[in-house]
Amino acid sequence: MLRLFETRTGQVVGVRPGPLKLYVQQPDDLRVCLTADLLRRLAPRLRRRTLTTAAHDVDHTPWNIPPLHGGDPLPGSLSVGNVTSATEVAVAEWTAPPGDPLAVRLLLLSVHYRAEARIGPESLAGAESRLDAWRRDIARWGTTTARPLHQPTADRAIAALCEDLDAPAALAVLDDLAASDLEPGAKFETAVHLDLVFGLDLVRDLGKY
């Protein structure tokens, strides 16, 4: 079950079932849009469809966020933005760095959405290295005999995201996967499955190694 922080009560509570309706209040804020995108990507894993509108049109496609289209909030929408209310996902402030858009995406996912993110050159370089290492591993695993994904590993990452979008804990599952004794083919399928949620283009280097 998806659980998110409710600002009115100060508690993490379950999100009511049914279609997940999102309204992006600050479309120009990349972190706000990334938080909404993570919810949108997570929903199919929970057998929920999403309907998303935004305060105005915006295009953040370099960060693997599909274009958002302006429109009024749908009835029962969960608002995402730098605001405080019982019906909103309140995203903390952050400092925008230059650099590889997907390394920036990884950096933002590596800090819980409710925590302030102060991002600098050193942390960006670390994210780039982490991303490169995962891509190298996945490219090598992709050359081995195919195996089914390891469902317990995938479930652990999804469970972390269901608990107030704990993306840092979910990303740590990828690190654990790389260090595990699972067969490379299973590692490959599991990483590809999870990257549909993370949106980091982890298969980009297939064929290079």
UniProtKB/TrEMBL annotation:
It comes from the Bacteria. This is Cysteinyl-tRNA synthetase.
